[in-house]
Write a structure and sequence with these properties.
Blueprint lengths: L4 E6 L6 H12 L3 E3 H11 L2 H12 L5 H12 L7 E5 L5 H13 L6 E6 L2 H15 L6 H24 L3 E5 L4 H14 L7
Parallel strand pairs: 1-3, 1-4, 2-3, 4-5
Helix pairs in contact: 1-8, 2-3
The structure holds adenosine-5'-diphosphate (ADP).
Length: 198
C-alpha cells in the first residue's frame, strides 16, 4: 500500500531539512523533490542548466523563479510524484508559492502539510561549518552561507505566514537526535491524518 502525502519541508540552512526530508519521504514512500539537489546534479553533470546556474549557486543567490518553476513542474509531472511528494527547497519565496499553488490547483491538488524545522541560528551555523568540512559544498563558504541565511530570513520565512493562514504548518523542534526529530515529524503528520502505510 502506498501513502499519499504532498509535503513541503522548510527550515534555515543547517536545520537538517535535507536529512529529515529524505527520512520522511522514505517513510511515506514518496519521492523527494529537492531543487538544490537537482541543480547540483546538473552542475556535476555539466549540463546546459548546470552551466547556467553554477555561478548563482556559488554566490548563494536564488536561481530565477521562472527557471526553477519549470524544473519543479517537469519533476512533479513524472509518474512517481502522482500520489505524493516531499518538496525540499521549493517554494522559497512568495512568488514561487503562487506558482506552485497554481500548478497544483490545475491538477486538483494542494499541499497537505508544511513541516517547519525550527533551529536556533547559532546551532544552524555550527552545523553548516561542520558540513563545509565534511561535504566541501562550494556554496558553504562563510560569505555564501551568510548570504543564504539573509535570503532565508527575508524571502523564505514569509512563506510560512502564507501557509500558516491555510492552517497546514507544523512547527517542529529541530534540536535533538535524528531519530527524535523524525519521530516528532511523523507524529505531527499522523495528527493530521497523514498516516504511514503499513
Ligand atoms: P540550502 O538550503 O543549504 O541553501 P539548497 O540545496 O536548498 O541549500 O539550495 C542550494 C542553492 O540552490 C540555493 O542557494 C539556490 O542558489 C538554489 N536554489 C535551490 N532552490 C531554489 C529555489 N526554489 N529558487 C531559487 N533558487 C534555488
Amino acid at each position: 500500500m502506498t501513502a499519499s502525502a504532498r509535503l513541503l519541508i522548510v527550515g534555515p540552512q543547517g536545520s537538517g531539512k535535507g536529512t529529515q526530508g529524505v527520512r520522511i519521504a522514505e517513510t511515506f514512500g514518496i519521492p523527494v523533490v529537492s531543487t538544490g539537489d537537482i541543480f547540483r546534479a546538473n552542475i556535476k553533470g555539466g549540463t546546459e542548466l548546470g552551466q547556467k546556474v553554477t555561478a548563482i549557486l556559488d554566490r548563494g543567490d536564488l536561481v530565477p523563479d521562472e527557471l526553477t518553476g519549470e524544473i519543479v513542474r517537469d519533476r512533479l509531472a513524472q509518474d512517481d510524484a502522482a500520489n505524493g511528494f516531499l518538496l525540499d527547497g521549493y517554494p522559497r519565496n512568495t512568488a514561487q508559492v503562487g506558482h506552485l499553488e497554481e500548478f497544483l490547483a490545475g491538477r486538483g491538488e494542494s499541499l497537505d502539510a508544511v513541516i517547519l524545522l525550527d533551529v536556533p541560528r547559532d546551532e544552524s551555523i555550527s552545523r553548516l561549518s561542520l558540513r563545509a568540512i565534511e561535504q566541501g559544498r562550494s556554496d558553504d563558504t562563510e560569505d555564501a552561507i551568510a548570504h543564504r541565511l539573509d535570503i532565508y530570513e527575508r524571502e523564505t520565512a514569509p512563506i510560512i505566514d502564507v501557509y500558516s493562514e491555510k492552517g497546514i504548518v507544523d512547527r517542529i523542534d529541530g534540536v535533538g537526535s535524528l531519530d527524535e526529530i523524525t519521530e516528532r515529524i511523523v507524529a505531527a503528520l499522523d495528527a493530521r491524518g497523514l498516516r504511514v502505510a503499513v
